[in-house]
Amino acid sequence: MYCQNCGMQLSDSALFCSRCGASTQAPGQGQAVRPAAPVYSSPNVTPVAVVPPPRNPVESLRGQVNVLGILWAIYSALRLMFWASGLMFWASGLMFRRGVMAMSVYSWRYRAGAYPVTRFWDETFLFSRVLSLVIGVVGIWAAVSLVRRNPDGRTIAIVAACIALLSFPLGTALGIYTLVVLLRQGSREAYAALSAGHTA
Fold first, then answer.
1. Cα dist from 7 to 3, 10, 14, 18, 27, whole Å
2. Helix (H, G, I), strand (E, B) or coil at 2
3. pTM of the model
4. Which residues pair with 16 in a beta bridge?
């Protein structure tokens, strides 16, 4: 065997040249090969959506009933104030209408039908006053029943909501909200449990 660098003759077992010190092995021959690091592929993991635990319907209804009680108390107080102010307005206007009727050219027999606009106004005014009084009284009753968690509070609030639908726009909005809360599925059982827990 000869050295590939200087050409000196070497023994077959020589690893390096005794003259120039060059290696007698071919490049890469006899060198330990480091094994490649294994490549691990991550398994296909399907993300799982975290579903929050279902909310207790009784606790959910508790907050909404509190809101309904407060709203009905405020709205009913406003309706009663509107009814009281209407009575004062009607009393002051009654004297004015009597004065107009007294100066009428019509005889007393025909004065009642001589002013159809006045009659329509009186009937409309009377209907609005009666409606305000009914909504105010039933609304206060519903508000107290809801706050105290009375067993019949849900029924009273539903009746008040149906009547308030005639009073646009605030009464209509409050009535719709009340019916949505108290007539949805499971609301009867939830209110019964809420009332039983409050009275216990």
1. 5, 9, 14, 11, 17
2. strand
3. 0.62
4. 23
